[in-house]
Amino acid sequence: MKLIIGLGNPGREYSGTRHNIGFAVLGELARRNGINFDKRCCHSRAGEGRIAGHEVALAKPQTYMNLSGDAVASLMRRYRVKLSDILVVHDDLDLPLGKIRLRANGSAGGHNGLKSIIASVGSMDFARLKIGIGRPEPLDAEHRDVVDHVLTGFDATERNIAEDAIGKAAEAIEIMVEQGLEAAMNRFNRVETRPVIE
C-alpha cells in the first residue's frame, strides 16, 4: 500500500490558501480515482481505494500544519507502511508558482509541516511532492510577510496557474503509484506547468 498525505490546515478560513495546496492536490487525486475521504482517524480525514490497480490510502491531516507529524506517525502505524511507502504533498516557497518537483528525500527546507514530520518519524528519508507557490513580491518597498503570503489565496491569474499545477501533481502521483518514483521524477521534474508570472 502507498500512503499519500497532503499537508494543509483544517477549517474554512484556510480553504484555497497557498499553504493548503497539498489538500487541493489530494482532493483532485481522489476525484480522479473515485476515492472518498470517508474515514476520520489518526488526526486525519482519510480515504482508501486503488490507483492503476494499486492499493492506496489518501490522508489530509487535521492537526494544523505545525503538528502534521503527529498525524503522519499515527497513519503509518495504522496502515503498517514504511517510510518508503509514503509520499507527502506540500507547498514550497522556493519554487516558482505552478512548478512541481518530486524528491526522494531531503531536509524540511524551512517548511513547518515537514519539520514536524521529520521530528515525529525520526528521518528525512521519505518522498515528497513540492508545489511551487512562489515567494512574496515587494509591496511599496516592503516585503510582504511570508506568513501572510502562505495564508492568502490566489488571485485570478495565479489561480489558473495553481489549478494547472494541481492537475499536473495529481497526474504525477498516479504515475508514481503505477510506475515508481524514479519514473515520475524523470517525467515531471523537467516539466513546467505554465509560464511563471513575472
Automatic annotation (TrEMBL):
<dbReference type="InterPro" id="IPR001328">
    <property type="entry name" value="Pept_tRNA_hydro"/>
</dbReference>
<comment type="function">
    <text>Hydrolyzes ribosome-free peptidyl-tRNAs (with 1 or more amino acids incorporated), which drop off the ribosome during protein synthesis, or as a result of ribosome stalling.</text>
</comment>
<feature type="binding site">
    <location>
        <position position="64"/>
    </location>
    <ligand>
        <name>tRNA</name>
    </ligand>
</feature>
<feature type="site" description="Discriminates between blocked and unblocked aminoacyl-tRNA">
    <location>
        <position position="9"/>
    </location>
</feature>
<dbReference type="Pfam" id="PF01195">
    <property type="entry name" value="Pept_tRNA_hydro"/>
</dbReference>
<dbReference type="GO" id="GO:0005737">
    <property type="term" value="C:cytoplasm"/>
</dbReference>
<dbReference type="GO" id="GO:0072344">
    <property type="term" value="P:rescue of stalled ribosome"/>
</dbReference>
<dbReference type="InterPro" id="IPR018171">
    <property type="entry name" value="Pept_tRNA_hydro_CS"/>
</dbReference>
<dbReference type="GO" id="GO:0006515">
    <property type="term" value="P:protein quality control for misfolded or incompletely synthesized proteins"/>
</dbReference>
<comment type="subunit">
    <text>Monomer.</text>
</comment>
<keyword id="KW-0694">RNA-binding</keyword>
<dbReference type="GO" id="GO:0004045">
    <property type="term" value="F:peptidyl-tRNA hydrolase activity"/>
</dbReference>
<feature type="binding site">
    <location>
        <position position="112"/>
    </location>
    <ligand>
        <name>tRNA</name>
    </ligand>
</feature>
<keyword id="KW-0378">Hydrolase</keyword>
<keyword id="KW-0820">tRNA-binding</keyword>
<feature type="binding site">
    <location>
        <position position="14"/>
    </location>
    <ligand>
        <name>tRNA</name>
    </ligand>
</feature>
<feature type="active site" description="Proton acceptor">
    <location>
        <position position="19"/>
    </location>
</feature>
<keyword id="KW-0963">Cytoplasm</keyword>
<comment type="similarity">
    <text>Belongs to the PTH family.</text>
</comment>
<feature type="binding site">
    <location>
        <position position="66"/>
    </location>
    <ligand>
        <name>tRNA</name>
    </ligand>
</feature>
<protein>
    <recommendedName>
        <fullName>Peptidyl-tRNA hydrolase</fullName>
        <ecNumber>3.1.1.29</ecNumber>
    </recommendedName>
</protein>
<dbReference type="GO" id="GO:0000049">
    <property type="term" value="F:tRNA binding"/>
</dbReference>
<comment type="function">
    <text>Catalyzes the release of premature peptidyl moieties from peptidyl-tRNA molecules trapped in stalled 50S ribosomal subunits, and thus maintains levels of free tRNAs and 50S ribosomes.</text>
</comment>
<feature type="site" description="Stabilizes the basic form of H active site to accept a proton">
    <location>
        <position position="91"/>
    </location>
</feature>
<dbReference type="InterPro" id="IPR036416">
    <property type="entry name" value="Pept_tRNA_hydro_sf"/>
</dbReference>
